Input
Amino acid sequence: MDHSFSFITSLQYQLKAALAQLAAFQSGKKYQDMQEAHHKEVHSLKQKEKQTQEELARTRRDMVRTREHWFEVFEDLEKEYRNEIKKLEKQLKAALKRAWKAERPCDEALDKVTQQRQKIYELETEPEKEKGKISIFGPS
Output
């Protein structure tokens, strides 16, 4: 008996709640409440979408700014690199000039030594040529 009383009581509460809900739908109040909740949810989602769009636009602007900054830095580094290359090329030309200047006296000295060797050779071979002439035309 106790079980059927609690079951009937539960059913009565459910019926009363269902009737109240039916009355709310019939009067339009429940529909208005649901519509209002729906509009709040839509408004909330639109606000979130707007914030997301603004954040996306901000991020894109930041990306563009960052890319422009990166290109500026890269151009500066490239300019420094070119200047360094020009400086090193000038140093290389100067070093080559100094090397050629330093080698010139050495080359001249080597040429002089070669000429002297040729003269020595000529002087050493001259007596032998004379001996050869004498022996050909020698005493007969």
